[in-house]
Every structure is written in C-alpha cells, then in structure tokens.
Amino acid sequence: MIRFLLLLGLAFSVRAADVQPVKNAGPYVPSPQSVVSDMLRYADVSASDFLIDLGSGDGRIVLTAAKVFGARGFGVEIKEDLVKRANEAAKEQGLADRVKFLKQDLFRTDISQASVITMYLLPDTVNMLKDKFLNELKPGTRIVSHDYPLTGWIPEKYWQMDLEDKVKISGVTTTLIYLYIVPAKVEGNWTVQMPPAVSRAPATLSLRQQLTRVSGSAKIDGRDVPLEDVVLRGDRLSFRFAGRKGEFTGQVRGNAIEGMFESGGNKSAWSAAHKG
pLDDT digits over 137-164, tens only? Predict the structure, then answer.
C-alpha cells in the first residue's frame, strides 16, 4: 500500500509539472481584429496552410484563418478558460472540424506540422523560441510576429502602422508586423555537379551561414571563386560566381540541392550533395 501511494504521488507530481509552463508568457492581451486580418494577409495564408498560433488567447487568429482564408490549424494557450472559450467559438462558427485549441505549454508543443506560425508574445518569450523554430519547423515556414521581432533574424518584410485600438493595449498607436521565412540549413561543404558550360569536372561549394545570411566560395578547376548575390529564402538558394556571367538557383532538400544555371537565355541543370 505504501509503495502504491508513493507511486501515485510521483505520478501526480509529474503530471502537475507537465502543465507548468517553462516560462510565464505574460498576461493575455488580444491582437485587435484589424491586426489579425493583416497578419494573415501578409503571410499569404490560404486553404493549403496549417497554422499554429502560440499563445492563442480567445482563438481569434486561428478562427479567422479558418473562416476567412480556409486554413486548418490549432492554437496553444495555457489559460484553461480561454481554451474553453475558443473551442466553444469554433463549434458555434462551424469550424471545429478544421481547428482546435489546446491547453498546454507553447515551449513543449510540437510545431513541426505548421506552414505558418503566428504569435503576439512578450519580447523575451519571442526570442526564447528561436532555437525551437530552427529545430522543428520546415524550411519555408512563415513566422508572423505582432510588435516584437526575432532578434538576429532578418525579416522577409515588416509593416508599421498606427492604430487607435492599440492605445488601450500598449499606450501607443504604433503597430508592427514582422514576417520571417525559416531558412534551410546550408552551412558546410558541397560536392557540385556543374553544368558543362561552367566546368566538366565536379566542383566544391563552401557555404557559411548565419540564419538567413549566407556567404561562401567555390573551387572550380582548382581555382577559388567567391560567391556574389547569395540569397537564401526558405529552401530556395541563389548565387553568382564573382566575375562570371550567369545565376545559379536551386531548391535545398536536406543534404541535396537541385536547380538550374541560367546564362544568356540558356538553362542547364546542376546539383550538389552535402559533404559536411
């Protein structure tokens, strides 16, 4: 009996710990409905998207994404009354088959299914999520943050506007919306099968990466050539060789890149394999 009670007590303490948030993300402050619409519109949300809202409150972002844009998804919220209210709203609006709301810690939530992440969280909470985004989200996933940026990330775009609705929330009218694209991981050395017009021998591509910033060089026919105009947008990579005509574009798929080289109106295929 004593052993049973000890095990029961241990199970209860583990379960209680599971619902304690890693960090208190702050009080519930809803985004004005006009900001919700702008966040979803700027992220190009559509019926093909799966949206996850971190700190979903009364559910308005997920509900609007489903009702107006046809998306599916779920919201994560630690406050039980808000989760209940959001799920009731989903039923009332006939959206319960496409969206749901979960009472759980956003830091422990599996977000890998998302094609769009939305959030209106305090700055330190936003930045505590950076590693989670890089480790769990697929390249090309859009992240939309209301008011607070991801420090060190270069936004794809950002918008600034003045809204009277924000005065009662933040004391000022200034409203910011940041859009980020999760980058593929391209750091390291790649063996490249070049188009015949560039080289008939395999080349080596050496890339350095800091989030969305990428630089590097290539070794072609024994010569080092710097890269220029390197752009990484999600899983799409493009660059040029310094002093040479033509542009390389390609799609990163894990440890491989496949793409096209275009010069003078002519196109030819190229590919690369990651060496480490």
Answer: 999 999 999 999 999 999 999 999 887 7
Contacts of 60 (CB under 8 A, 6+ apart): 30, 31, 33, 36
Q: Read off the amino acid at residue 155.
A: P
Q: Are 250 and 235 in contact (CB under 8 A)?
A: no
Q: Are 139 and 236 in contact (CB under 8 A)?
A: no
Query: Which residue reads 């947008």 in tokens?
Result: 233
* In contact, 251 and 258? CB cutoff 8 Å: yes
The kind and range of the H/E element at 8 are helix 2-18
Please list, in sequence order, all residues whose beta carbon lies within 8 angstroms of the beta carbon of residue 102, skipping any fewer than 6 positions away. Answer: 74, 75, 76, 77, 83, 109
Residues 77 and 24: beta-carbon distance below 8 Å: no
pTM as predicted? 0.84
3-state secondary structure (DSSP) of residue 194:
coil
Rounded to 5 degrees, what angle do the CA atoms 80, 81, 87 make?
90
Q: How far is CA 86 from CA 34, 71, 76, in A?
A: 19, 16, 10
